[in-house]
Structure formats: structure tokens, C-alpha cells
Write a structure and sequence with these properties.
The protein is mainly alpha-helical. Helix content is about 60%, strand content about 10%. It starts with 13 loop residues before the first helix and ends with a strand. It contains three helices and two strands.
Length: about 70
């Protein structure tokens, strides 16, 4: 199964994206951490502290962590 998530300032919350895809994070507290991580990456890109390529790498790492914590609904 292939799932894609949107990241960025205008992206819907991860909770909504996962729910729409019929997926659930195994541990709810991790979802809040993942959302804060995604928001932090977006923030430091907007502030010019990291490049787009660095943000892409960070988001890929975050996506791997999210994927590891997903369970079928």
C-alpha cells in the first residue's frame, strides 16, 4: 500500500490526512510529536534556516518514522 502525506504551511493536519487514508498511528502521543516535527521543519524553511533540499531530507526521515508507527484502522 502506498500512502502520501502533504507537508507544509497549507497542508492539512497529519491526523486528518491519516484518517482520510483509513490509517491510525499506533501510539496517539506520537502523532502530536510528528505534527510538531512537521510544523518545525516548515517553520525553519520559511525562516531561511535550512534549504529546500534539507527540508526534503528531513521530511523523508519524518515520513519513515510515521510509516513505522502506522497500523490499519
Amino acid at each position: 500500500m502506498s500512502v502520501s502525506l502533504e507537508f507544509g504551511a497549507l497542508a492539512p493536519p497529519l491526523r486528518e490526512q491519516l484518517k482520510d487514508a483509513g490509517l491510525v498511528i499506533r501510539y496517539k502521543r506520537n502523532l502530536a510529536h510528528y505534527q510538531r516535527d512537521a510544523d518545525a521543519i516548515t517553520r525553519i524553511v520559511i525562516r531561511g534556516l535550512i534549504s529546500d533540499s534539507q527540508a526534503r531530507t528531513a521530511r523523508k526521515r519524518l515520513m519513515r518514522r510515521i510509516a513505522a508507527g502506522i497500523t490499519d484502522a
